[in-house]
Amino acid sequence: MAQRRARKSPWTDDRDALELIARLLVSSSYRVPVEGTGTKSGLQAADVAGAVGYMRDRLAQTTALAVATRAQERDVARLSAMAFRRVVRVVRLIRPRPLDLHQPADRWRLRIAVYDAAYELVWPEHRRPYADLARDAKMRKASYIAVHKAASATLQEALNNGRRELAMRLFAERAT
Fold first, then answer.
1. In the Cβ-directed half-sphere of 153, how many Cα atoms lie within 13 Å?
2. What is the rounded average pLDDT for all residues in the chain?
3. CA 2 → CA 5, 74, 120, distances in Å?
4. How close are the terminal C-alpha atoms of the chain, in Å?
5. Of 121, 122, 118, 117, which is closest to residue 130 (Cα–Cα)?
6. If phi over 0 gives left and psi between -120 and 50 gives alpha, with beta otherwise, what is residue 46?
7. Distances (CA, A) of 145 to 141, 153, 154
8. Distance (Å, rounded) from C-alpha 109 to C-alpha 73?
9. Full-prediction pTM beyond 0.85?
10. C-alpha angle 150-154-159 in degrees, rounded to nearest 5
11. Mean pLDDT in residue range 38-55
12. Closest among 142, 81, 89 to 117, alpha carbons compared
């Protein structure tokens, strides 16, 4: 009779910093697995809070916390306001320019697209079609898609940097 090996669940990773934040912040009976019964204590919520406090990039920190805690609309709006300047820099490099950022209406449209990208990053199951989002922002679909992709790429980069830095601070090693 062949013995079955216990397989690790493919969708969980005990070394993923964002997953640890999500598990430790949600009230449950979850315990961080430890390797032995020695005197070394497991990872606590205070350890995660300390690692988050030592993160240097505030946008990366806010993005990682928003995704890990499934932030509500108010916190997503705060995240999109923090990301706005970085997205403006990226949008200015797009040729042909989808928006004229000297116009207040176009800056407002960009803010709407950044909020939509941030909300989609935090709540991917609530994703809406680009046509509806462009209609709500009163933009052409092609321009909206270009701006939304720039905002999504900026926020995704911040999330990846936050995940990497948090893992480095939390586990005191380089995360790959």
1. 12
2. 83
3. 9, 54, 46
4. 39
5. 117
6. alpha
7. 6, 12, 14
8. 18
9. no
10. 145
11. 70
12. 81
Tell me, what DSSP letter sits at residue 89?
H
97: enclosing H helix or E strand = none
Asked whether residue 7 carries a pLDDT value surpassing 70, the answer given is no
- 94, 131 contact by CB (below 8 A): no
For 27, phi and psi rounded to 5 degrees?
A: -70, 120
In sequence order, the 6+-apart residues with CB closer than 8 A to the CB of 150 are: 87, 90, 91, 94
Question: Which residues, other chains included, contact 160 with Cβ-Cβ below 8 Å and sequence gap of 6+?
Answer: none
Asked if pLDDT for residue 11 goes beyond 90, the answer is: no
Q: Above 60 in pLDDT, residue 147?
A: yes
Residue 65 has φ and ψ, to the nearest 5°, of -70, -40
Task: Dump the DSSP string for 32-71.
Answer: ---SSSSS-----HHHHHHHHHT-S-HHHHHHHHHHHHT-
Local structure of residue 14 (DSSP, 8 states): T
Span 76-135, pLDDT tens digits: 999 999 999 999 999 999 999 999 999 999 999 999 999 999 999 999 999 999 999 999
